Amino acid sequence: MRDPYRGAGSEILNDIYSHTADVLTQYQDYSTQDANETSRAVVNRLREVFGGQLVYFPKGVQDDVTERDERMFNEFDGKNQKELAKKYGLTLQQVYRRLRVMTTIIKGENSD
Q1: Dihedral sign for Cα atoms in the order 36, 41, 42, 44
Q2: Would you put residue 34 in left (φ > 0), alpha (ψ -120 to 50) or beta?
Q3: How far apart are CA 83 and CA 81, in angstroms?
Q4: What letters, b where the CB count within 10 A reaches 16 and e where it falls short, cover 56-92?
Q5: pLDDT value, residue 66
Q6: 32, 49, 87, 99: most buried, per Cβ within 10 A?
Q7: How far is CA 108 from CA 47, 73, 90, 103, 112, in A?
């Protein structure tokens, strides 16, 4: 399909359209037609809500780190720090620090 959006700012609109359609067909089993229609609706909604604004999308690195740290904490058996360091590409000191932070977070959540 040719790019559905033309004119100023169309590159980002077409990218959002394309990526949304890809996700819908690859992960949600949408037909190509349904994915294209839904993608157009998503882009149109974004245009209505954010049109004319400068929008910044954070990379979400902190979310990735938090997810990794949660996985590492769940895999921690009390003595496998070296294995976790190797698996996650961290130094032993970084593993100790992250496990300590996660322990503090978990204790704080459980005390509420």
Answers
A1: positive
A2: alpha
A3: 6
A4: eeeeeeeeeeeeebeebbeebeeeebeebbeeeebee
A5: 87
A6: 99
A7: 41, 15, 25, 8, 7
HEC string of 47-74 equals HHHHCCCCCCCCCCHHHHHHHHHHHHHH
Q: Which two tokens stand for residue 15?
A: 């990218």
Confidence of residue 3 (pLDDT cuts 50, 70, 90): confident
Take residue 10 and report the two structure tokens written for it.
């169309």
Residue 14 CA to residue 34 CA, distance in Å, equals: 17
Separation of first and last alpha carbons in the chain: 53
Which tokens hold the place of 109? 């959540």
